[in-house]
Amino acid sequence: MCALKTQSAIIMQSRGKATVEHDLAIPSPDAFELLIRVHAVALNPSDWMALDTFARPGAGAGYDFAGEVVEMGERVSDWAVGDRLAGFVHGCHAANYTIGAFREYLTADSELVIRLPDHVSFDAASTLGMGISTAAQALYQSLNLPLPVSNPTPIAQSILIYGGASATGSIAIQLAKLSGLHIITTCSEQNIPWMLSLGADEVVDYKQPDAVQQVVNLVRKNGLSTILNCIGTKPTAEFCYQCFTEPETTQHREYVYAPLMPLSTSAPMQNSLPATATINHRWKFVYTCFGKRFTTLTDHPAINGTWQPCREDKQFMVRFYRQFETLLKDRKIDFMPQEVKLGGLHTVLEGISLVREGKVHGKKLVYPILSCAIP
Q1: Which of 22, 240, 258, 355 has its Cβ near the most Cβ atoms within 10 Å?
Q2: What is the pLDDT of residues 141-200, one digit of tens each?
Q3: Measured distance CA(84)–CA(295) in Å, rounded
Q4: What angle do CA 118, 121, 126 make, to 5 degrees?
Q5: C-beta separation of 180 from 153 below 8 A
Q6: Of 369, 360, 370, whose CA–CA distance to 339 is shortest?
Q7: pLDDT of 340-354, one tens digit each?
Q8: Which of these, 177, 178, 179, lies nearest to 202 by C-alpha position?
Q9: Residue of 51, 57, 82, 50 lying closest to 69 (CA atoms)
Q10: DSSP character for 247?
Q11: What region holds the Enoyl reductase (ER) domain (predicted)?
């Protein structure tokens, strides 16, 4: 049981504004939850997007974390005090200060966290949660690829991962490679060596005027029917749609486009496929993996509204996390480069501004969280 009674956390005040608040009660875990002492948190673009678009006064901020178990709910049997773990929580979505990663202590579903091997640091692990969860939903639920294994058998299928140098893109490359696929990705020229080191088979500089044609040439024989867009803007969607390609000898039965962010318009995208071909647009909202009802207030028509509990999404993520633990243990996952910044919760707010202003590229900002009163 945690000996402390209060903690500090970053709490939403109004749209675009959050502050560090102190003397907040440390919650007790429910029957199937863990109480976790947070050792490190990492920033995502979602942190500033949530703050600026659908923040609710009183809501806790933050998603990604790593830490250790300090207390278990009465129905939890497979965790112990001191166990190391990482994950993400659904911060920012409700007027409840106990939900959110940017704090000293948090509660989480005991099935929806990732057990860490000893060789993985808290700083590195804090970068995993949202990135691997988003990539997993897209690759294995939307695109229906085989689950990753430590020693995959290559399969005759290519995938285009647009935005390979993004946090989700860098993990998606590794996961898709461990699923046996042939990986084509896009990034800027300076990130090409990094993409190759992660397992990409072909890398295209998206800034080149013939970048689309380069992708088409790479897949000419077998075609391209599977695309993951890790950026999700309209220009990147247009790029991806132009890359769908028929194979030379057979005909694909299905073309699937999975973006991390849906477009706000349903206007058709130009592509070179026959008129009879159908491109299926599949997008999943990562927060459905928690299996709980939630409401998002935003101007984006595809996101705004109330989302009902999805048992299937939670069951998938629980199963994937157990598989991902094996990949971590077998040292099959490389982490995105981290810039560790000291200063605790107060400097997290500064980091959110840096990400909002587009000043962070090819790395994750990570913040150790050190309580001044740990027993």
Answers
A1: 240
A2: 999 999 999 999 999 899 999 999 999 999 999 999 999 999 999 999 999 999 999 999
A3: 31
A4: 125
A5: yes
A6: 360
A7: 999 999 999 999 999
A8: 177
A9: 82
A10: -
A11: 18-366
H-type alpha helices, the chain: 45-53, 122-125, 129-136, 167-178, 192-198, 211-218, 234-243, 311-329, 345-356
Cα dihedral 346, 352, 358, 360 sign: positive
Structure tokens belonging to residue 64: 């990604």
**pLDDT at position 301, please?**
75
Judged by DSSP in three states, 288 sits in helix
Q: Is 340 exposed, middle or buried (0-12, 13-18, 19+ CB in 10 A)?
A: middle
Residue 294 in tokens: 């939630």
Own/partner contacts of 98-101, CB < 8 Å, gap of 24 or more, are 98/27, 98/60, 99/59, 99/60, 100/9, 100/10, 100/11, 100/59, 100/60, 100/61, 100/62, 100/63, 101/38, 101/41, 101/60, 101/61, 101/62, 101/63, 101/64, 101/65
Distance CA 169, CA 186 (A): 9
pTM over 0.85: yes
Q: What tokens were used for 267? A: 């206007």
- Token pair, residue 125, equals 């692990």
**Across 94-98, 322-326, 335-339, least confident range:** 94-98
Q: At what angle do helices 311-329 and 129-136 cross, to 10 degrees?
A: 120
